[in-house]
Amino acid sequence: MSVRAQTLIWLAQRASAAVLALCVMVHLATMIYAVKSGLSAAEILGRTRGNYAWFGFYALFVLAVAVHAPIGLRTVIAESFGWRGTVLDALTVATGIALALWGMRAVLGVFV
Amino acid sequence: MSNEKPAATGAGSGASRAALNVRVWRGAGEGSFQTYEVPRQESQTVLDVVTHIQRVIDPSLSYRFACRVGVCGSCAMNVNGKARWTCRTHVEKVAADGNLEIAPLSNLPVIKDLVTDMKEFFDKWARARGRFAGARTRDDDFARVMPDSPQRRNVDAGIECIGCGACYSACDVVQSNPAYLGPAALNRAWTLHNDVRDVMRVERLASVAGDAGCHACHTHTSCSERCPKQISPTLGIAGLKRAAAVAALSGEI
Ligand code: SF4
Ligand code: SF4
Ligand code: FES
Fold first, then answer.
1. What is the pTM of this model?
2. Hey, which residues does B31 pair with through a beta bridge?
3. Which end of chain B, N or C, is less surrounded by CB atoms within 10 Å?
């Protein structure tokens, strides 16, 4: 990976961290509201199905996780096991794609 | 000054209050600590202790020093587990109980006893382009640098580095990522980055960015805590991270 790419993924991790901070707060507030108001699963689905605002919000959340986590994991693996190079970079990308797919599956589950 | 009672316990050393119990690393990669008893003196520095051992007790002990006044940066060692400049570290401050453990700096190969091989440390300065590159000749006028300009202030904050390696020894990232340039080389690059006369800004940013450079720093400030010159390499590294990120975004690097 070029030095430029290394710098850009560092930047991507910082930017996604900022997005995550916001998303986690909104998500927690939503959860607390849902539990306190005693919303049933059906009531929650009633609000999320076909709701593009919630879809957009959680899609952004998933995207931020899919960017943030693999980059951090890459550093942890490199520093803990001395494993660096193309294979690790490929694993980083694969982890990102897997997280994005799993996450989007959940988001679509409450949207469709 | 000396109305303390003799220590009754001696913490297993058996040495009197007037003597220091000093454990010194002997050997290279393979080695062990040896214990010496060194008379305690007023205003005694850790370097004085090492010198006493070498001159009076065991002339085969190897260590480095030159100026003895905190200028040359050659005398840094691990003293009771922390990297310090030994010529300006008073025994009283670091070994109030009379026990001293002196070891070579960490993260550097040990040549013998307290002497480490600093080659990699300084090679990294070169890799970080830690050398001024100007464009003016002797026929040009002097550059005018305002003392209170932000750049000049940044330079002032980092320029007093004596190259002792204490920060490098204290940095965990150097340990877990051997290619990491380390706090001293990056601090040097930061001072040059802020030198308005320097013409290698972009090349230097490219040399200090990424996994082996400033972006590997975890900002846990051990380097800043250990620097005897009160420099904060962490701050300079943060500045380099931003500058390199901007350069990467704009395609400069
Ligand atoms: S702040 Fe950065 S350079 Fe300083 S000790 Fe920590 S990781 Fe190393
Ligand atoms: S930055 Fe401080 S600790 Fe590091 S080499 Fe320079 S003077 Fe020594
Ligand atoms: S001997 Fe020169 S700095 Fe300590």
1. 0.92
2. B27
3. N
